[in-house]
Structure formats: C-alpha cells, structure tokens
Known about the structure:
InterPro entries: Lysozyme-like_dom_sf (IPR023346), Transglycosylase_SLT_dom_1 (IPR008258). Residues 1-34 form the signal peptide. 62% of the residues lie in helices and 4% in strands. By secondary structure, the protein is mainly alpha-helical. It has a single domain (4-157), classed as Lysozyme (Orthogonal Bundle). The protein has a three-stranded antiparallel beta sheet with strand order 1-2-3. Strand 2 (75-76) and strand 3 (81-82) form a beta hairpin. The protein is globular and about 40 Å long. The two termini are 24 Å apart.
Amino acid sequence: MPPPHTAIRPAIAARARRWLLGAVALLACGGASACWEEAAARYGVNPYLLYAIAKTESQLNPAAINRNNQDGSYDIGLMQINSHWLPTLRKYGIAEEQLWDACVNIQVGAWVLAQNMRRMGNSWEAVGAYNARNPERRLKYALKVYRNLPPQVLDEQR
C-alpha cells in the first residue's frame, strides 16, 4: 500500500493547475493580477484570501451577476459586491457601473473584508461575514473560501 501522502499529491497538483488557470484568466481581463496585491496592501488583508473569496463568489468571473438573493439585492462582478453597499459606495464616489471593472471590484471587496476584520478580528468568522450574517452560514462559507486558497498558502500552514 502506498504511503498516505502519495494520494494527496495529485489532488494538490490538480488544485495548483486550477489556480494557475484562474490566475491566467485574470491576467487576460485587464491585468487584474496587480490589483490583488494593491488592494491587499491598501486594506491590510491577504491577497490570496481575496483571490479565494473571488473564486468562491464568482469562479473568478469579472462579469458575474447574481440576482437570486432572497432580500431582492443582487451581487456584482468578480468579488460579488452586494447592491446593499451601493449607497455607501456612492459616498466614496464609486458608482455601480464602476464595479464591473475588476480592479475596482477587488478594491471594494478588500474594503468589505477589512471592515469585517476590524469588527471581528483576523478570523474565519470575519471571512464568513463577507457572505453571510448567520453564524452557521458564515462557517460554511469560510470553509468554502479555505478550500479555494492557493496550494502554496496551505503548504505554508503545514
């Protein structure tokens, strides 16, 4: 019987390939790759965490829109910025149309995450609050984000 770690390596390799494909897709959409680093530095959040949230929210699709929210709101772009943020964003000079720009969307997503972290600490609860108000749903969402972290981040934690 092979050592237990040999079965994991193909799974990690497959994840790395998916991550690279996603990164290449972002490079193709207006050079958004630099936006991860910029937004992360500006708001003091991890760029890989931002990437994992975008992958969880939109499968890295900058044109994604979700109109199926129970409260009538909708989610826009790469980071799926919820429309309930629009009045607040207008105060900062950000219009809804600007959220279709991947870099603007990443910046707003980083800002939302940073606000959660200020309120809840640097925690998975804060990550979960990006998508859910309910504590149980936050945990489920945070686990999805964790699973979308790039393999090198997970390797660093082991």
